[in-house]
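Issue: copy button drops trailing tokens. Both records pasted manually instead:
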Amino acid sequence: MSAFSARVRDDQGLTLVELLVATVLVGVLGAIVTTAVLISNKQVRTSSDEAVGLADTRIVVERLGRDIRASRGVDAGATSGNLVLWIDQNSDYVRNATSQPDEIVTWSVVSSGSGQYNTLRSTAGGTVQLQSRTLVSGLAFCYLTKPSDLASDCLPTPLSAANAAATRLVRVTLNYDSALKYGSDDRINTFTERIRNVS
């Protein structure tokens, strides 16, 4: 056998079996890389969702908690979705929405049209501030006369004048998720604040 004929046999190319094995190996490696990228992407979305939702919730909890603690009372007519507080900022014990409109503060939720709600803080003077954008089912207020963990102890809403005067605590439930259907599941945050300046 000559050197030329030996070289020709070695350069005949790939067999069908070798081609199939190479294709399967490339497919398996591609599937592994694709799966890793998808898992990583989902983890990044979930982390981002958690961070944005917690940031919005922290802002609402801090600001709303401060308003409830500083208030002198809850207005009659307050509902589970609309909280109206009187915050006597100048300590003159005069509640007048006309002469002191910034002392009447309303917390409410408004649908953003995307399945989420915006949390708004407004005053009788017309100042409206957007507090958060990531609430799913909104903000729920429960009015209590004494500390309790029971939902049945909530005063009926809208509050009557007598129940508004008797309210000493407000339990707030926030349901939030910043990236609907793409990140983490809905989260619920509940806290109770005492009205400290009740006259």
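Record 2 (pasted manually too):
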Amino acid sequence: MRWVPIIAVVATLAGCNTFDPKHPLVGKPTAFEAAPAIYVWVEDSNLWHVRFLGKGAHRFQGSVAGVRGGVLDLALTRPTLKDAIALAGDAVQFDVESSAAEADDGFDVRVVGSCARFDLYVDGRHHTERVRLGPRLGRPSKIPFDRCP
């Protein structure tokens, strides 16, 4: 009987090391699919990464804004994207046409607070099945959506 509390504590701590359901958005995905998609993940509690991937010609559009305030910083993955991705008011607006096969196109954005609002389009439509969230490649249930790390 004395071992029951000890076993419960060890089992609880062991679970924290292998799976943390509170943070499914933290960390870069380890695999990118070939289908056209927008990948979103977060690091450092308020630095959001948005990347576009699609073989063939595809159009990625939308906006990212802070839920509790504006955008603090915007960094593009390539300087040539400056005409397609820009800060407009309190949000990052983007309209990127891409035929790249790599997930290198996109931007990093730091928002006030840690929560961000995403309104994402692939080929002119909201496609929840074409948005991948975090390293587990989750999907939003609807678009637009808010996420917090």
